[in-house]
Amino acid sequence: MSQVSIIDDADGAIVDYDPEFLDAGERTALLAELAQVRDRFDRDRVVMYGKTIDSPRLVCAFGDDGLHYRYAGVDRTTHPWPPRLRAARDRIAAVCGHSLNYALVNLYRTGDDYIGWHADKVSDLVPGSAIASLSLGAARPFQLRHKATGADHEVLLASGSLLIMRGTCQQFYKHALPRRRGVTEPRFNVTFRHVRAV
Ligand SMILES: O=C(O)CCC(=O)C(=O)O
Ligand SMILES: [Fe+2]
Q: What is the pLDDT of residues 159-191, one digit of tens each?
């Protein structure tokens, strides 16, 4: 595990990045497994400022039985873990130092798909738990911005890379994956989370 520190600030926000968490064989196998469940992906209908908006990307959730994780008015059913995704989850949980029971997977079909500036909702997560983000497919730039100072960070998320956000990251920073014209290859992003049992 060769982690690079992206953020480690006085407020306790921590972001670490490992560009080569998965080797080439694991990347190919996991991409193939996600491609097999491609028909389970659909757009989120997100309620924002009283309006219903279809997300500019496709989404699918996997997790342990009976879990719910709500965000922006979406309460999505979780599918059972495909075996390779569960194996990746186990390895990533060992890196985080706690269990991970939920994975939200975004599919950016081309560079036109994106996710806007936001912080992840942490009230349904186990306090102090990390959010671990595994990328597969097209490399896309990921941006982090401090909510008060506007300080910017950008990381090109490579296929097979792992980015871990922990500490007060969601409290002090927003993040986004902007549009990138000219990207024709799809990208899957899996964010593993430790959702609180309700
Ligand atoms: O695709 C990414 O790298 C980020 C996804 C994300 O921020 C989210 O699902 O909350
Ligand atoms: Fe996010």
A: 999 999 999 999 999 999 999 999 999 999 999
At the top level of CATH, the class of 4-193 is mainly beta
Ligand 1 centre distance from Cα of residue 120 (Å)? 9
Give the ligand whose atoms come closest to the C-alpha of residue 104.
1
**Entry pTM:** 0.93
Residue 30 and residue 42: Cα distance in Å, rounded?
19
> First CA to last CA across the chain, in angstroms?
33
The two three-digit tokens of residue 16, written as one number: 């670490």
In the predicted model, residues of the chain with pLDDT beneath 50 are: 72
Does the complex come out with an ipTM higher than 0.90?
Answer: yes
Please, which residues have CB within 8 angstroms of residue 72's CB and are 6 or more apart in sequence? 44, 46, 47, 48, 121
Torsion angle, CA of 107/169/157/3, rounded to 10 degrees?
A: -130
CA of 131 to the centre of ligand 2 (A): 9
Determine the pLDDT at residue 198.
62
Ligand 1, residues at Cβ distance < 6 Å: 104, 106, 115, 120, 133, 142, 157, 175, 177, 189, 191
